[in-house]
Amino acid sequence: MEIVDVLSSSVAILFTAVVVLTLYLGIKIVPQSQVFVIERFGKYTKTLTAGLSIIVPYLDRVGYKVSILERQLPEFTISVITRDNVEVRLETTVFYRVVDASRSVYRIQDVGGAIHTAASSIVRSAAGKLELDDLQSSRESMNAEIATFLQEAAEIWGIEITRTEITDVIIDDQTKEAQRQQLNAERERRAAIARAEGEKRSIELAADAKLYEAEKIADAVRIEADASAYAIKINAEADAEQTRVIGEAIEKNGQAAVNFEIMKRQVEAIGMLAAGESTKTIIMPTEVTGILGGLETLMSSIPKKGKT
């Protein structure tokens, strides 16, 4: 009886152990950062993603646990020759992640080494298309080009290239000295151009000033000419008016008006002669008294307005 009880207890314990082992082998909990590659009799069957999954116990097993987190290759240095035959070294790194775990474990053994080799070839090809100056200033475009071509190469391994970075461009001392001399020459050239532009601008401003002065002088001459023309016009109108008045007087008073005008002009001439600064002594002929007397006689003989 005791032997039967012992056997029953052993069978129960064995059955319980088998059930626990079956559940352990059949239920898989996959972390968020990983995927499980399931094999059946050594052959790939499926990939388990994050969460709770059930497989066939004793037949299926977890062949590989693959991290799907983004990874970074250690920085590596690549020696390249630019289009202008300058040898430089590029420090490069690559960021990638596994998107197809089955291909990453069954198609290639060393993913990092494969990406390193492919990246070296693509970086050399991309850098060889550029000159040294363009290489130092075109890192962003080079990074995009390298990432595109590297993605094409890594797709067969189930890898996504998320980013490539050229972290530094290393050149030798001789090339640095040549670049320094070239930079100094470029600075001198720009300084010479700036001085030439300044001199040119100074000459332009001086010419503009002279042109402005000439325009103002021309305006002044034109205004003066207009004033002279206006004065001549006014004088001409005054002479015409005077001539008209004298003509009317002659027409009305005859020879007496003519004699009056002649005597008047003679008196004005004597007055102008006496007003001259260089005149010291004026000898007047005796006829002048007669002229003045005759002028008075003529004035009294000419009829005044308002009298008949």
Automatic annotation (TrEMBL):
Record-level Gene Ontology MF annotations: hydrolase activity
Lineage: superkingdom: Bacteria
Keyword Nucleus (UniProt): no
Alphabetic keyword roster: Coiled coil, Hydrolase, Membrane, Transmembrane, Transmembrane helix
InterPro entries referenced in this protein's UniProt entry, alphabetically: Band7/mec-2_domain, Band_7, Band_7/SPFH_dom_sf, Stomatin_HflK_fam
Spans traversing the lipid bilayer: 6-27
Organism whose genome encodes this protein: Puniceispirillum marinum (strain IMCC1322)
CDD domains: SPFH_paraslipin
Protein's UniProt name: Band 7 protein
UniProt-listed Enzyme Commission number(s): 3.4.-.-
Limits of the Band domain: 25-183
GO-annotated cellular components: plasma membrane; side of membrane
Coiled-coil parts of chain: 132-191
Location of the protein in the cell: Membrane
Classification of source organism: Bacteria, Pseudomonadati, Pseudomonadota, Alphaproteobacteria, Candidatus Puniceispirillales
Membrane topology: Single-pass membrane protein
Family assignment from sequence similarity: Belongs to the band 7/mec-2 family.
